[in-house]
Design brief:
The chain has 11 helices and 12 strands. It has 309 residues and is an alpha/beta fold. Helix 1 crosses helix 2. The longest helix has 21 residues.
Length: 309
């Protein structure tokens, strides 16, 4: 396909049409008249050789192809928006823009709060928008990164994309204060026999994959998409949960739980900021990465004078 022959304005029209499913509303959304929007729809129908919007009774529904295009168009729009927002120079004290960062609630609580504080002080016109890490991040990382400014994720889960290291953490277990069968130490037998509460796809974490090598299969009883809910789902139960030590120190006081060391040598967690290569040379993104790295060194306790250049 010859991209030079395509009108990229049609991407804007296509997104509005697919999301609104109404020619008039789509036109109002992007500032086009109803005749102009109808003309855009006609061009899109010729290009895809598909109706895209099929009238059913008094309204329109998406065709099978349009359903496929819905997510792809949103991603393409975000990529184009970031592409044409790229800058050769960036002054954080004067600029006004938003960075979308994908992160678990763990990363936001432990790192994002400090990053937001530094950005507030140094770049008052910059906005940070944190979006929850989807369960499909491992399955389609490229698509996710192409539509965002960065992803907070530890090493060992994804690869083959540029990243800057931020800080280290380690894994610990949470058990109820009054757990009837766990004293001051967990055993490997405990990990196999007790029910677990886990965060989404915990098996992606290298520390959990280690359990398989030890012949231990976690018996998951509850799964949630929030690390910060784990203590509440452990307190007063027989369940156990694997959680990051930095987050455990923040959360343990709010629930009747104890923090115990793993009964195996759990690999440490190296948190990093991952990004799509399209952002690598963008001045604004370089500033974001350098700021995140500086906050990471501070969190790790590295004196500024010892920080790498």
């Amino acid at each position: 396909m010859n991209l030079a022959r395509l009108d990229l304005n049609l991407v804007v029209a296509l997104r509005a049409l697919l999301e609104e499913r109404n020619v008039t509303r789509a036109g109002q959304r992007i500032g086009l008249s109803q005749p102009a929007m109808s003309a855009a729809l006609a061009r899109l129908r010729r290009h895809f050789d598909d109706d895209l919007l099929a009238r059913v009774g008094g309204h329109y529904e998406l065709t099978a192809l349009a359903q496929v295009l819905l997510d792809r168009t949103s991603t393409a729009y975000d990529v184009l928006e970031r592409l044409f927002a790229s800058q050769a120079d960036f002054d954080p004290a004067e600029e006004s823009r938003e960075f979308k960062l994908v992160a678990s609630d763990y990363a936001v609580a432990v790192f994002g709060t400090e990053l937001a504080r530094v950005v507030h002080e140094e770049a008052p016109g910059i906005r940070l928008r944190f979006a929850q890490t989807p369960p499909t991040v491992v399955d389609d990382t490229a698509t996710l990164l192409s539509a965002t400014d960065g992803l907070f994720m530890p090493h060992g889960v994804i690869s083959d994309f540029p990243a800057t290291d931020l800080y280290q953490d380690r894994w610990v277990f949470l058990v109820a204060d009054d757990h009837p069968s766990v004293d001051d130490r967990l055993t490997r037998r405990d990990l196999a026999r007790l029910p677990w509460v886990t965060y989404q796809r915990t098996y992606d974490a290298p520390a959990v994959r280690q359990l398989g090598m030890l012949g231990i299969e976690p018996r998951v009883e509850v799964s949630v998409d929030s690390f910060q809910l784990l203590p509440l789902l452990v307190a007063g139960t027989r369940r156990i949960a694997l959680v990051q030590a930095r987050l455990a120190s923040l959360l343990a006081p709010i629930a009747a739980v104890r923090v115990l060391e793993p009964p195996y040598e759990a690999v440490p967690l190296q948190e990093a900021l991952w990004w799509h290569p399209v952002h690598t040379h963008d001045a604004a993104h370089i500033w974001l990465r350098e700021t995140a790295a500086r906050v990471g060194r501070r969190l790790a306790g590295v004196p500024e004078e010892r920080a790498p250049f």
